[in-house]
Specification:
Order of helices and strands of chain B: EEHHHHHHHH
Distance between the termini of chain A: 34 Å
Radius of gyration of chain A: 18 Å
Radius of gyration of chain B: 22 Å
Structural class of chain B: mainly alpha
Number of helices of chain B: 8
Helix content of chain A: 25-40%
Number of helices of chain A: 9
Strand content of chain B: under 5%
Helix content of chain B: 55-70%
Number of strands of chain B: 2
CATH architecture of chain B: Orthogonal Bundle
Largest sheet of chain B: 2 strands, antiparallel
CATH class of chain B: Mainly Alpha
Shape of chain B: globular
Distance between the termini of chain B: 61 Å
Largest interface: A-B, 32 and 24 residues
Strand order of the largest sheet of chain A: 6-7-8-3-9-10
Oligomer: heterodimer
Number of strands of chain A: 10
Order of helices and strands of chain A: EEEHEEHEHHHEHEHEEHH
Structural class of chain A: alpha/beta
Shape of chain A: globular
Strand content of chain A: 25-35%
Chain lengths: 245, 241
């Protein structure tokens, strides 16, 4: 069963065409790593999945619902977004709210969850990401790795069917990357459908069930990790791998 | 008590004491005028900001032109237009329904409108600055969690923007205390106008001007102090992501 489908999606920023007729399908339980050189369109593709970017042409489906921030009714779009968790490169925690409030805000407002229930759930999630002692801290008191783990908990609080990670470790100091990757691996192993844009090749190889290699707005490879890393087809991907590994 | 400056000129503040009630009356008018003006300016300014952020091009263009026009012409000209030009084409601001000889005049109500509209353009700029300063990632995070655009504004953007906006609004109020002195030219009994009254009553020029300068300085200093306190209170636990 496919959760997300991308059909013939193209997207340009000004004169630069970032995505060129992309087709892609994400099935329930898959862990898909999107890799490729900088500027290849990885993040844009990911952001099209929950319509933070709206494609110029083509369609994105979540189950059978078309996701489009321009044409869809706002309430319908919000219902879809509740089911698609997103974690950003720069965390984007709400600095005026405590860790607890960061996590409970959306469940309370968008799902109408009772404050007490939302808090209990938030504390469980903080436990899961190993930050139960930071409940009442503010984001500016946390390290980068801690911020990103709170951001993951915040996204999980909505009970998403799929999680999108947009280079979740690219803004972190090297010593903090591992703690975040461990949390993501834990989620992926639990069977949560995951789409991950990353530069961490070793990690992608370890946790992904599929690797998508993107270059200049086109999908050049789409294969299980063993196949992709051991039997790379395209010249582009070979050059890319030789540079990063 | 007096100081002899030139052979012919004597500075004598003792003759000012019996005019203290007059000065105080002017202080009251200036404070009321500034408060009402800033209130109107803030509400109107918020409205202009919303128009300016509209996705409809003509609406946002109109709001931009409004701001350009108001900020690009002198306040004194705007006041005269409201008071003397617009009535000629039938636009008259009616006096407020109060029996006070100051607040119940057409001049006062017109000054409130002219100053309020003037202030709104500056407030709109302050609000825009505050809203623009909030990182786009905040809105993206909120919307990706399923919050509506209204909830995003109410719970994520505006609470953060207020901390940036408040100092600007405070400055606008302080500015208005001083700028409102312009209404004395149309006969409104504010602090500035009291110096004319005292001058006419005593034939003294130097002393009343020194006194009203001090009055303005005290008013703005007190406000600056209050503003600092408020900012300090708001800044306790914040900054950065």
């Amino acid at each position: 069963m496919s959760i997300l489908r991308v059909i013939n999606v193209s997207k340009s920023f000004g004169k630069l065409q970032v995505l060129k007729e992309i087709n892609m399908e994400i099935k329930a339980g898959e862990v898909v790593a999107i890799i490729g050189p900088s500027g290849s369109g990885k993040s844009t593709l990911l952001r099209c999945l929950n319509s933070l970017e709206v494609p110029d042409s083509g369609t994105v489906y979540f189950h059978d619902t078309e996701v489009n921030a321009k044409t869809q009714k706002e309430a319908d779009l919000n219902t879809v977004r509740e089911k698609i968790g997103m974690v950003f490169q720069h965390f984007n925690l709400f600095p005026h709210l405590s860790v607890l409030e960061n996590i409970t805000l959306a469940p309370r407002l968008a799902l109408g969850m009772a404050p007490k229930e939302a808090e209990e759930q938030a504390i469980k999630l903080l436990n899961r990401v190993g930050l139960s002692d930071k409940v009442n801290s503010y984001p500016n008191k946390l390290s980068g790795g801690q911020k990103q783990r709170v951001a993951i908990a915040r996204a999980l609080a909505m009970g998403p069917e799929v999680m999108l990670f947009d280079e979740p470790t690219s803004a972190l100091d090297p010593e903090m990357i591992k703690e975040v990757l461990m949390v993501i691996a834990d989620l992926a192993h639990s069977g949560l459908t995951t789409v991950l844009v990353t530069h961490e090749m070793g990690f992608a190889r370890e946790i992904a069930s599929r690797i998508i290699f993107l270059d200049e707005g086109r999908i050049l490879e789409d294969a299980p990790p063993q196949e992709f890393f051991n039997n790379t087809q395209s010249e582009r991907a070979k050059i890319f791998l030789s540079k990063v590994m | 008590m007096f100081i002899q400056v030139w052979a012919s000129m004597v500075i004598d503040f003792s003759r000012m004491t019996r005019w203290i009630p007059t000065f105080l009356e002017g202080v009251g008018v200036t404070i009321v005028l500034s408060l009402v003006t800033v209130t109107i300016g803030s509400i109107l300014g918020l409205f202009i900001t919303l128009l300016r952020r509209s996705h409809l091009l003509p609406v946002s263009a109109l709001a931009k032109f409004y701001i350009l026009f108001i900020r690009g012409t002198p306040l004194l000209v705007q006041l005269y237009v409201w008071l003397y030009a617009l009535p000629l084409i039938g636009i008259v601001i009616p006096p407020l329904p109060v029996s006070s000889p100051v607040f119940g005049t057409r001049e006062f109500s017109t000054a409130v409108i002219a100053l309020g509209i003037n202030s709104s353009a500056y407030v709109a700029e302050i609000l825009r600055g505050g809203l623009d300063a909030i990182d786009k990632g905040q809105t993206e995070a909120a919307r990706s969690l399923g919050l509506s655009s209204r909830q995003n504004m109410q719970y994520v953007v505006i609470p953060q923007a207020i901390r940036i906006i408040l100092p600007g609004l405070g400055n606008e109020f302080i500015q208005m205390i001083k700028e409102s002195s312009i209404v004395s030219t149309v006969g409104i009994f504010d602090v500035m106008y009291t110096s004319n009254i005292v001058k006419a009553g005593t034939y003294l020029v130097f002393e009343p001007l020194v006194i009203i300068s001090l009055i303005y300085l005290i008013l703005t200093s007190v406000l600056t102090f209050l503003q600092r306190q408020l900012e300090r209170k708001l800044n306790v636990d914040l900054k950065s992501n």
